[in-house]
Amino acid sequence: MDGRGTGRDLARQGLTVVAAIAQVVAGPLGFFLGAEVGEISDQNRTLATPAGYAFAIWGPIFLLIGAYAVYQALPGQRENRLLRRIGWPIVGACLGNALWEIIFPQRLFVPAQLTIVAIFACLAVAFGGLAREARERSLTGAERWLVALPLGLLFGWLSAATLVGLGATLRAIGLLPGGASETFAAAALLLLCGGIATLVLLRWRAIPAAGLLAYVAAVVWALIAVVAQGGAASTPIAVVAVAMIAAVIVALLGALFGGGAARGGGGATVGGVAA
């Protein structure tokens, strides 16, 4: 390995740790500089906005990304091909989270929404890289639980948050209609959320079960919270959200047990499928 490769690897490892810490620190900083995220979110709530408890998922996400950051920083992982493949997009996603936590409390709604889209794009690149690596070789247990699992949970939540955020952004800038049109718009966002999640599961089914299960857990968690909030105010929203939950679960079962692409890694199994 030449010095340039080693230097890039060291930079990636160091910036991953910095980015993982930054997304935790940025939350209190954003509150200090502006307002509480929950307060602003409540002011721009739509029928597609999950109940407030759903955002507690950030606790496990931060912990798991922290575990990933420690794992990838180990000297023995410096030249890990998987981490080289997906490490930089994850750095981008974490730094994007930190940026969003600072600009959203400033009520910079459009830049905040564009940031969420950029985070989603980074995570999609990383998830695709993980799937390609899993098709090419058997992933280790550490890679399944300390890479695929955290990435799946974060990407799953952002798959929902990107669209939920779009609804809130449209409300904040006065472009979301009221009445029946609002119900239609919220239902369309939920359909899009379910469609994206289904496509992710079927397109990247080679990902270890730990990553797929974490992805689905985050998406379903968000949709259940939509049923609890928007669904309580609108029966059509409840029906659409429940239908999307069912569709995502069916897609998960198809990805896990439908055959086709090999899933990376041996060891622990879920119904005979390597986790």
From TrEMBL:
<protein>
    <recommendedName>
        <fullName>Tryptophan-rich sensory protein</fullName>
    </recommendedName>
</protein>
<feature type="transmembrane region" description="Helical">
    <location>
        <begin position="53"/>
        <end position="74"/>
    </location>
</feature>
<feature type="transmembrane region" description="Helical">
    <location>
        <begin position="237"/>
        <end position="257"/>
    </location>
</feature>
<feature type="transmembrane region" description="Helical">
    <location>
        <begin position="14"/>
        <end position="33"/>
    </location>
</feature>
<keyword id="KW-0472">Membrane</keyword>
<keyword id="KW-0812">Transmembrane</keyword>
<feature type="transmembrane region" description="Helical">
    <location>
        <begin position="86"/>
        <end position="104"/>
    </location>
</feature>
<feature type="transmembrane region" description="Helical">
    <location>
        <begin position="110"/>
        <end position="131"/>
    </location>
</feature>
<feature type="transmembrane region" description="Helical">
    <location>
        <begin position="143"/>
        <end position="164"/>
    </location>
</feature>
<keyword id="KW-1133">Transmembrane helix</keyword>
<feature type="transmembrane region" description="Helical">
    <location>
        <begin position="209"/>
        <end position="231"/>
    </location>
</feature>
<feature type="transmembrane region" description="Helical">
    <location>
        <begin position="184"/>
        <end position="202"/>
    </location>
</feature>
